[in-house]
Fold these 2 entries.
Entry 1:
Amino acid sequence: MMPKDRNALMHDIQVYGFALVEVNLYLDTHPGDQAAIACYNKYNRLLEEAYLAYESQYGPLTIHGGTDNDCWSWVKGPWPWEYSANTSR
Amino acid sequence: MNYNAENRTPCDRIGEELFSHVGPTPTQRYGNKQENRATAPTLSQAVACPACKVGARQNGCGCNRGAGDASCPGRMSGRCRVHGEDRLAGMPLAMAYVPMQEWRNLYDLEPGFERGTLFKELDFPFFPTACPRRGCR
């Protein structure tokens, strides 16, 4: 399988992150709902995988994402105002 | 009330304690228990508008025809528009009631992302329309 490109990975991260917030809000009022918990765990795992895939290829997504040993990786990625580099799809 | 007790959700907290000063709780009024039937209006009772039955004097919808009369202006598809559909009649005023959501009718990931919600039941696209009042902008 071809590795996903930057935009596709970023899109996955946004989709999984969005789904997690939705399930999170549901679980706030239904903390014992097993189906929702299973769904949360599934998307959480997928988000972690997407995060790892993105950061290993394209650098840290947050300041907690680690850095290369020889260079501060954080400054190598696009800045938030660099629209074309950040648009998903 | 111990709000920090384990597994206390906002839903759990809506109990008698919270509403004790304003009368019976919603579940007491609208519960399915047999002993509550006398005070809980059923749907069929709500559809047959009691105010319409008693004539114009007490009739808020302005109709003096019987509730079964299809020509009643306040009536819409078997229900009195003014009185019949207020299933919250008798509940404490100024309180907001939100039905409990259930885990069902989910969107798939991509459509949910596009729609802005994972839950089909919460997908309410609101489109502004022109005000129906004539001359109003």
Entry 2:
Amino acid sequence: MARPETQSITPSGAAPSAADKILEPSPGSQMRRRIFGHYGIMIGGTVLAAIFLIAIFAPLLTPFDPILDQDLAQKLKPPFWHDSPKYDPAHPLGTDLQGRDYLTRLVHGARISLLIGFSAMLISGVIGTALGVAAGYFGGRVDMVVNFIITTRLSMPVVLVALAVVSLIGSSLWIVIWVLGLLIWDRFAVVMRSTTMQVRNLDYVAAAQACGCSTLRIIMTEIMPNVVNHLIVVATLEMAHAILLEAALSFLGLGVQPPAPSWGLMISEAKGMMFFDPWLIGVPGAALFALILAINLLGDGVRDVTAPENRN
Amino acid sequence: MLKYILKRLGVAFMVALTVSVITFSLIYVSGDPAVALAGEAASNDEIEHIRKSYGYDRPIPVQYMDWLGRALQGDLGRSHYLKEDISDVILTRLPNTLILAGCAIAFALILSIPLGVAAAIRPNSLIDRFALTLAVVGQALPSFWFALIMMFFLGIQLRWLPISRVETWQGFIMPSIALGYYVTPGVMRLTRAGMLEVLQSDYIRTAKAKGLRPMVVLFKHALRNAIIPVVSLAAVQFGFMLGGSIVIESIFAINGLGFLAWETIQRGDLPMMQAIVLVLSLFYIVITFLADMLNAFLDPRIRVT
Amino acid sequence: MSDLILEVRDLVVDIPVATGMLHPVQSISFDVTRGETLCIVGESGCGKSLTSLAVMDLLPGTASRTASVLKLDDEDLQSAGERRMTDIRGNKMAMIFQEPMTSLNPAYTIGNQLEEALLRHKQVSGAEARERAIYLLEKVGITAAASRLTQYPHQLSGGLRQRVMIAMALMCGPDLIIADEPTTALDVTIQAQILHLLADLQKEFNMGMILITHDLGVVARVADRVAVMYAGQIVETGTAKQVFENPTHPYTQGLLECIPIPGKTERGAPLGSIPGIVPSLVGDLPGCHFADRCPHVMDACRSGQVDLRPSFEDGHVFRCLLTPDQSAANLKKGAA
């Protein structure tokens, strides 16, 4: 950086003068530089943004409908890399067992994954954060009770309980979202509890209490802003977790129901064709992998950038 | 120490009790369990018969106490579908799941702890980058998809390993990897972070100042302290594996508890479903309790007060 | 056998940092002889701790050391490989650290941690190691020593832990003991006990000792010789008597004005302070490092290297452009 005028004033090697301090990059621009210099955030963010755009504009991307455009005569067309005479340029990723365009189903599947991941994360985030912050802030008995609830929740196997509940009350997109949301709040609660506990003992919280601020006000204005970076990291992890769980439930036939183009369901439907047409499994699985990877990279990146001292 | 054990036992007992209540009420999620059990085609008489024979006509607290009392004596009731004692069915299926989860956690720990230690010794080295990449990739890989991919390449293309329903040890290799790899990123990262922190601690400097051999410093002084949080995580993950085995067992058709759970859920066999959830939850509670005891053994600050 | 235990000439420690090369220790030379206590004094960050870690070859991370001579008991430590160094550390030279609360491994008993050094370096049985541990625990003033062996660090107070650390350093009967601010983390009442203990043990076992401290009161009580460090250099060194009675470097003079002396400092009189801050040691710093804070600074101080020059008596040297007489005159003026 060009700072000749200060360099001539300050003897080389001496402590930075006041002028130097003023010319130092602001915290905001330092943060921007850290974000844009972070490979994980850039790659994860780009891929996630791309998948998000694809999900929004899914109907415009292909001329087909993911469910209605069935044509058994067109079934199991190979994808473009197979170099087969059966390849149809209208279906670059081929077609599935019902003759539906695989690319269309794939891009519509992004909608389901993102919707479920985001909604379930939101529900579990609200529950977990409320429990965790309450436990961390009030401590004592509240903490004991919340801890007990968390331990109890952790001892129930998520996949099994989700499957059982879904099988009993029937399955739909929103049921899956609510069941997952009500089940996976544990990590939010654990992380929020410990971070709130740390922040709670800091002097500025005591100062706010001494000023007579209400508990709610202290939590909203003093605690939350200081735990929000941890919240974001957990949110990304849990969004990925929810998406993986939905895919697993749908794969087992008890998540999103056919003919919806859920990626997990697509893998499940293609399971029988694994010997002859493995790409039917490979494509939605790879999409799932890319989405989760992108979300996790972004989450890891946020953690690195907001807490550089924790990088190692 | 005795106080600590008793306290932990008390918590474990309370959690188990709460879990049993939740598990019991699971069958009421759908409303009337008799209707759910009888199936859609059942007549009113059949539903009534089922309600009577399963005791669903009694007040719910009575049903719960009766169910809990029998469960404590090892009687989990009879399966509506299999017409067998649930305890017997679960006992015959349990060993396969325990073997699978045991192999999976062993695979995960054997892979992740040395990798985490190696990565912590030389941060930013090639092995550290490799470990981190493996962690990032591992965390993003859906286990059922990974299982299918392995099946395709190792089972079908290369024909190295049997792909399903094989009760030999080779049959357990792919399922164990598929179940275990998902745990490796977390354990690896925790080991690495713990070792990095411990290696910078004052007592490691003391150990070096004593002239101890590097291996003694690393394993006796550093790993012993860094491993303590890993034990807790591994126990939690082992518990999750028991529950997560449902996906892997159904893919590889392993005749274990997970596969049984999947079959049971599809058949709508409510008493059996209850029993499986209860058994898996109890396993989790026991395992985390044992992990706490192991930690107390490893960390004298817990043990000696 | 010569009485010279440690010989250090032109010891340099470099640490690469983002903005260049940091030189926290710049060409330090000193000797330690048997039965002698050398105090290295200086304020935080002057390089005194790094000097001791460099001697032990325990420098953190990317820091590197060089020296023209670095000998312990006539053995060149620079050519000794890492394997040989582990044989020397804890055996011929031992170190006591600043933080007794965190310097003991929480996972092992006191006995285990005391005995392991001896078992590592000497051919002794477990019972003999135990005996020696009990003997030394008693030596450092710990009662019920045998029962302490089975206790864990968290069961002991800070003062006790530092006594254990001292016993641990003595386990193999080292020729040289380095104590890096061994009392700063302790209560004031315990500080004095620990210092007296260290001084007594050093005389009793006839070891050489390097005591690193920023507390001139400590120095006055236990030092045979003193090296005053400032910004990576030794600015004045001599016997304790020489340095305390005739401080010739302006920094030493300033330091001594900062502490009250019973019977000498008048009640209610303001204590001295040294204005300014320590210069950054990244890159090369020409001239005298103390120039920016020195009350007697001249133009010549800011350019060229300032070397150590003899003061009034033999063995007393200081790093300044002033003559000893000018310095002594300054001191008188300041006192008047």
